[in-house]
Amino acid sequence: MNRPGLLTACAAMLRRDLTLAWRRRGDIAMPVLYALIVTMLFPFALGPEDTLLQRIAGGVVLVTVLLAMLLALDAMFSSDIEDGSLEQLVLAPQPLALMLGMKILAHWLTTALPLIVIAPLLAGMLHLPGAVIPVLLLALLLATPLLSLLGAVLVALTAGTRRSGMLLALMLLPLCVPAVIFAAGAVAAAQQGLPWLAPIAWLGAALVLAVVLAPLACAAALRIALDA
Amino acid sequence: MSNWIPLWLHKLGSPPTFYRFAGTLRPWAMALALLLGAVALYGGLVLAPADYQQGEAYRIIFIHVPSAWMSMFIYGVMGVAAFIALVWRIKLAEVVAMESAPIGAAFTFITLVTGSLWGKPMWGTWWTWDARLTSELVLLFLYLGVIGLYHAFEDRRQGARAAAFLAIIGIINVPIVHFSVNWWNTLHQGSTINLFGQSKISGDMLWPLLCMMLATKFYYVASLFRRVRTDLLALEGGKDWVRQIAESEAGQ
Asked: Model pTM?
């Protein structure tokens, strides 16, 4: 039998997931709309004072993006479990961790990237100073893949269960505390004119660790959840 | 000649043997826990002098600190049991890991409640976003996540394995959370009791504390054994040894 090479398989996996996401473009817009609505509610709830909104802007954008990603996380493997293609993936000769890594990448591209694109708009709605926005984007660029990777492991663990929405939040939120602290720390430091590189470097280190370990953990978790 | 220890451990891993073993040890552990707990409470609440700065209010330390130790100790036990359960697929280790979680969550909850009761007169607030308080709260959520995941599966063994995996992820994450939170904000005092070297606490106050620590350990053993025994009966419901127990109980 002629096996396709690893790169071909990775490319095919990525292309498949992106095509599927593109055919259901409405789903991609949902987290973006959710983030817009949540951000819009803050001025209503706290009052429209510029100084107050400015102070909380960085944190609000980060938490909003995190919640929007959490909302979309549930769907990472659900359709593949329903039609059985995930089992095929487990049986495939290619390393499962690599294939799952591609799926996570596709998921990040379709859910987190749109959120990062509108992040400047969200920050603008809350009057975050323009000079801080690049730092916010950098923090998001490092923190969102971290959340996708961590989330993928947990979604894989809940793959065999029916009701996983709230459970996923309960499991993910404690684990993502460091990501939130470092990302928000970088934005807050930049806002006060302090050096902000240290928390960004921490985020980068955590991301490197997660890129290496999370796909492996995800594969192990999926094997546990699927073997009945 | 010297291989009786591994042999004994191997036997202990089988549910009927552990059921009997735990049944014999449990009353002793519970009795020791009650005795040591009573002695520690008497020593801590009556014999120990009042603190020069905090007055009588410091006495909550005799509940708060042992619970805090147990909250972390039990997470460690759960992590080790989870690792054994996943690597060697030992049913007993799965049960021990899963039945440790509610006890650990209870100790974590006690730590948080007594801490906030203590915080009100000392710091003037029930809750503050301090590093230690926050990581203890995160620990509680980790426990709840493990318990929740365990119960989300139809099949209990599959649920136990998934939750065991989550417990191990949590173990890797706990130091990261701890240091990130420390870096973020700190008010809680550092550790006073040093295992190696001089402790910064008077001996009158130290011995009830250590006594209570032992009491909580024994309570954990007693409580864990009781839970594991019940769980083993439920898991092994169809097996012969459970039927024998049921018949002998019915015959009495």
From this structure: 0.86
